[in-house]
Amino acid sequence: MRLLTTRELAHAIGVSESSIKRWADEGVIRASRTAGGHRRIPLPEALRFVHEHRAVVLHPQLLGLEQPASAVLPADPAGHLFSALCDGEESKVHELLSSLLQGGTTVADVIDGPLRAAMTRIGELWRHDPEGLLIEHRATDIVLRALNAVRMSLPQTTSGPVAVGGAPSGDPYTVPSLAVATVLAADGWRPVNFGPDTPLESLARAADWLAPRLIWISCTVGPLSRSRIEQVVDLARTVATSRIEVVVGGQAVAPGTFPKLANLRVLSSVSDLAVWARTLAPRKAALAPRRRQRAKRLASPAP
Ligand code: B12
Hints:
single chain; alpha/beta; Multidrug-efflux Transporter Regulator, Chain: A, Domain 2; Methyltransferase, Methionine Synthase (B12-binding Domains), Chain A, domain 1; Rossmann fold; 3 domains; three-stranded antiparallel sheet; 8 strands; 50% helix; binds cobalamin
């Protein structure tokens, strides 16, 4: 993976090199160090920074952007993704995700935006297309590989906070939990995705075993039974003493489903998750004011 010097990134976005160094030291930009102690910024991290901070790119070629991102992206990424998934064109799916990410869209925004929209449309096909079910299964498989490819391309961390999670017993959905893991990985976490059909008691065990800072639960199959809700609440209470936060989301989670608990959050998108999770991770102090405000709002207990 291409690594940028602080000078290159500074030049690309027209700020001083000392600003880049300071942001790297504050954790606003994730950077590694060379053996000689020089900071190096992975290209995807530089692009994330540019996008999130709406930095003006003066020299796109330094960031591998030969032309403005809008010129290489289709006008309707969700429609484009839907067509590629329907046609089983895996390489087109990978290309589209790569160009969105290289254009500066965050992993979370790609998932909450075009990916979710395309899968929602695919979920309607079975009603009127005899091949709809097969298209849905193939699309799921392609999306899983594409998300795993994104995850593999991210810088690996050995020191980020650990998060564990999955979908509960009886919930076969694989994409949402993988989506959560990918978004956390993009933000410097070390996610352990147990995937679908994971008993909540096993997640409690994983809390002892892996000492995570965060447990996520993704629920697509609904409506959630009273006992399922109680299991989630029990899990949150059990891990509260270890300062572990529990976050629940997914299509089956409606507002007001869960009682208010200090360490239990209900969030409806992976973008909200990314923002809130930063309040738990060391990057908290480095959040820009606009993001800090949003993070504060999200940090209030579940409604
Ligand atoms: C793929 C799919 C399947 C596959 C899943 C395969 C797999 N291995 O994952 C299979 C074939 C198993 C399946 C089965 C069924 N499915 Co289905 N499925 C879908 C489909 C098309 C896509 C789901 C998906 O991956 N979405 C992509 C993810 C990224 O989006 P998301 O789930 O919305 O997640 C977002 C947020 O909710 C949030 N989020 C999710 N989790 C979390 C967690 C946290 C912590 C946070 C913060 C956020 C968060 O962030 C995500 C990104 O924005 C949906 C369509 C749809 N509208 O979603 C139908 C859909 C969910 N299925 C549906 C149905 C009806 C079924 C079946 C009953 C069909 C049948 N007759 O058998 C069965 C039921 C299975 C069961 N055991 O209950 C309906 C549900 C309707 C309802 N509300 O009751 C849908 C909506 C399709 C439709 N329009 O009819 N399905």
